[in-house]
Design goal:
The structure holds two protein chains of two kinds.
Chain A lengths: L2 H15 L4 E2 L5 E4 L7 E9 L4 E9 L2 E11 L4 E7 L11 E7 L5 H6 L12 E2 L5 H12 L6 H7 L4
Antiparallel strand pairs in A: 1-3, 2-3, 3-4, 4-5, 5-6, 6-7, 7-8
Chain B lengths: L8 E3 L6 E3 L9 E2 L2 H15 L3 H9 L6 H17 L1
Antiparallel strand pairs in B: 1-2
Classes of the chains: A alpha+beta, B mainly alpha.
Chain lengths: 162, 84
């Protein structure tokens, strides 16, 4: 698959199934290698209607998703969760597909002082996770943070998650 | 390139069925060139206070984590491979 074709798929998910919760019109930035066919990356910062953010990044090699980083951030509290495959693994210490959950460093200082260090940024474990698909990732966000949205069920069905 | 309203049917990545594009204007992709990637890499010093090489080493040694770090390290390697 070409990098721009994969980017088109992601755009399709965003604009066709999740447009109700997206703020603005994300374009997605892509870079495609001229030396290596079907190699490159896709990135975008998606703003949601409640002020939260999705940071999206995928690396394609030979037309396949080799690495990914899907991060959800709530700037009001600093809460984030982050599914990743960085292409390297170190047994159970760092599984290939893993999850981070915590609070961003630029959250309220008083809040950060009360939290255990393990919840600060990526200081906690690399929790072993299943390989995450982007439609599942955005479905987690819709199902948990937009559960009262009038189109929540419709969005989850269209993402083939219900 | 200006954003365009699209009335063409697009395929859902999930179902494969054709669906009408959203009424929201869908802007074109932004294709990152050499200067765009240089601009991204300039964030390494701003955000991590390191040279590019120090950052790359620290990231590969697992001393730096996170979405932004992963992205910047990829751009670092891509730039070296593609442009140097």
């Amino acid at each position: 698959m070409r990098v721009r074709d994969r980017a088109g798929e992601i755009k399709g998910i965003v604009y066709s199934h999740c447009k109700d919760i997206i703020d603005g019109s994300p374009s997605f930035a892509i870079n495609e290698s001229k030396k290596h066919k079907n190699c490159g990356a896709i990135t975008e910062k998606l703003k949601l209607i409640d002020g939260s953010l999705i940071n999206f990044f995928e690396i394609l090699v030979d037309g396949e998703i080799k690495e990914y980083s899907y991060e959800y951030v709530r700037p009001d509290t600093g809460f984030f969760f982050h599914y990743q495959n960085e292409g390297v693994e170190n047994g159970i210490r760092k599984p290939l597909h893993h999850l981070h959950v915590g609070i961003k460093k630029d959250a309220n200082k008083k809040l950060l002082e009360m939290l255990p260090n393990e919840l600060f940024e990526h200081n906690g474990p690399h929790y072993k996770a299943p390989e995450m698909k982007f439609n599942e990732f955005i479905g987690i966000i819709i199902g948990n943070f937009f559960k009262n949205h009038r189109n929540c069920e419709r969005m989850l069905r269209s993402l083939e998650l219900e | 390139m200006a954003a365009q309203k699209s009335n063409i049917l697009k395929k859902s990545a999930i179902t494969g069925h054709k669906i009408k594009a959203a009424d929201k204007c869908i802007p074109p992709f932004h294709i990152l060139g050499k200067k765009d990637i240089e601009k991204e890499l300039s964030n390494i010093e701003k955000e991590f206070g390191m040279t590019h090489e120090e950052f790359h080493k620290a990231y590969r040694e697992g001393k730096i984590h996170g979405h932004e770090a992963m992205k910047l390290d990829y751009y670092y390697e891509f730039y070296k491979d593609e442009y140097e």
